[in-house]
Amino acid sequence: MTYRNILEKIRLAFPQPVSDTIHDSYFVHSMMRALDQVDALKTHLPFLGSIIHGDFDAAKQTKLPDTMSSVEAVTKDLVSYLEGMTIFGHPRTQQNVIAPTTIPSLIGVLLTSLHNPNLAWDEFSRLVALAEVEVVAMTSQLIGYDTEQASGVFTFGGTGTTLYGVKIGLEKACPETMQKGTSEDAVVFVSDTGHYCAANITGWLGIGTNNLITIPTTPENEIDLKQLEEKLRNALTNGKRIACIIATLGTTDAFGLDNLKSIVDLRDTLVDEFELDYQPHIHADAVIGWAWSVFNDYDFEQNPLGFRPRTIRAIAGACRRIRHLSLADSVGIDFHKTGFAPYISSLILVKNQTDLDLLKRTPEQMPYLYHFGQYRPGMFTLETSRAGTGPLAALANLKLFGEEGLRAILGHIVEMTQLLREHLEGHEGTTVLNRGNFGTVTLFRAYPVGVDTFEIKRQEFEDVTYRDSLIVHNAYNREIFEYVNSEAMEGRGVFISTTDCYRKTAYGEPIVALKSFILSPFVDEEDVKTVVAKVLEAREAIS
Ligand SMILES: *Cc1c(COP(=O)(O)O)cnc(C)c1O
Questions:
Q1: How far apart, in whole angstroms, are the C-alpha atoms of residue 328 and residue 322?
Q2: How many whole angstroms separate alpha carbon 284 and alpha carbon 300?
Q3: Residue 387 DSSP class
């Protein structure tokens, strides 16, 4: 076969550059066939097909095929890789902060992938660049930033958003780090229930994980303000420079919300008192919590959407902290978490767009780019090529839901979470650990018959003489978890999750917890009741 014959097949495998509706039908049909094959993997269970454990050694031997394949064969092959995938939208999975994705957000990803805009520069992305600016505007407004002043870009994940926050703060505290390298005096603060990406970031930025100061949290999983103040004062007294204070608004495991307002007040006091020549940067890691902003101006008294009183209280409890997001100098937002968009769709917002100038390279460093056009984020972003998928998926969902839809979907999953807690608290054998946190994640523990669950939680948490009891019950809850999930595997019940250390006790021992993360609009009352029933059944089965 000459290359010309092969080229013909190759051309068929591309969308056509000029209108060819017959070929479009072929394209759509190919997608349809893929969807049909995925559909054939659906059962009543919350995963596709059956769970197969991949042979990673065999995978290492994979070789490039000698000859060409076809769209049909490759599609079939690709679909096979979805076997065993959790269906995150399934009502019988409450496992993690992984969102089911909407049809418009998927179309957003498809359209951008189809025409491959590069957001480095509007010259390469045209109006898709405008979409990014529109999402920045909508989201800024949502959290309460002045849209004239604020700016932002999509980046490579929630981790990327915090990286931007810390890097900007580093440049403020230690000017020209970009040119001179990182000062040994830079320190970063985060709570001990904040995300571990802070360690990654300080490591990668050259600040060093030894200069990441972790502050203990209160039983509500909020940063302990007294200890934060003490450690900040210590650092300043010792001549350290504060590159960033990371406030977490929505911790991953418990939905703890740091008191941002007090942190900002504290920062301002210290700037005056120590006569600092810079303002320590405050970054809000709100990758999970941002979405609650849609309730900032909800009429909780009138409650037009008809949520139950407990739900209203939970939403108001979260908004009490979330409504101050605009006090942060930068905010991280994940649309791929509480925005129901596919990975990766993460946005870093800065309150003052001039902060982004701290990251700029000079045009001489990039001679082949950015000669004209109106929008050139590639001059300061860490990435060079940046996909349009994230912004278009986010835009799709913001337009699809609007404020009303986001309120309804979040309100519903909060309502289901509250219902779960009500049921867990209705039994003497189970106890909710993060009662003071108002998100859609519930951490709970089960105890064997005969244990006083009214006392045990506090005792195990505070009293070191309960260390052995805590350890025994840690193992007990792992067993409960195994039971519940093996039942779910058989189609009886709901998949839940577990965490090895939702937090540490006052005496430093990790607390194992069962975890329900509700993020699917398909979860309903019956599914929530099933979780409780299965935990109680496990209690019978393993005692
Ligand atoms: C998930 C998460 C991150 C990391 O975000 P990725 O999008 O996974 O990179 C950071 N902070 C918090 C609080 C998170 O929950």
A1: 11
A2: 25
A3: B
- The reply to whether ligand 1 has any atom less than 6 angstroms from the CB of 397 is no
The answer to whether the CB of 487 falls within 8 A of the CB of 416 is no
Q: Domain range for residue 281? A: 145-362
Q: Is the dihedral of CA 510, 210, 175, 266 positive or negative?
A: positive
Judgement on whether residues 55 and 170 belong to the same structural domain of the protein: no
Q: Are 260 and 284 in contact (CB under 8 A)?
A: yes
CB of 390 sitting under 6 A from ligand 1: no
* Residue where a domain stops, chosen among 362, 377, 411: 362
Please indicate whether residue 248, judged by its CB atom, sits closer than 6 Å to ligand 1: yes
- In tens, the pLDDT along 120-158 reads 999 999 999 999 999 999 999 999 999 999 999 999 999
Cα diameter, the chain: 80
Can you give 167-178 as a three-state secondary structure string?
Answer: HHHHHHHCCCHH
Nearest CA to ligand 1 atom 6: 158
Q: What are phi and psi of 37, to 5 degrees?
A: -65, -35
Rounded-to-10 torsion of CA 498, 503, 507, 512? 0
Q: How confident is the model over 21-29, as a mean pLDDT?
A: 97
Q: How far is CA 179 from CA 169, 170, 360, 378, 380, in A?
A: 15, 12, 11, 18, 14
What is the rounded distance in angstroms from the CA atom of residue 84 to the CA atom of residue 447?
Answer: 32
| Separation between Cα atoms, residue 294 and residue 386, nearest integer Å | 28
What the block records as the tokens of 87 is 């269906």
How does residue 1 score in pLDDT terms, banded at 50, 70 and 90? confident
- 418 class by beta-carbon count within 10 Å (0-12 exposed, 13-18 middle, 19+ buried): buried
Task: Assign residue 193 the CATH number of its domain.
Answer: 3.40.640.10
Q: Is the CB of 288 under 6 A from ligand 1?
A: yes
Number of domains in the chain: 2
Q: 196 CA to middle of ligand 1, Å?
A: 9
Q: Would the CA dihedral through 114, 118, 121, 124 be positive or negative?
A: negative
Q: What is the pTM assigned to this prediction?
A: 0.96
Ligand 1 mutation target, pool 161, 190, 197, most atoms within 8 A of CB = 197
Alpha carbon distance 325, 290 (integer Å) = 8
For the Cβ of 285 lying below 6 angstroms from any atom of ligand 1, the answer is yes
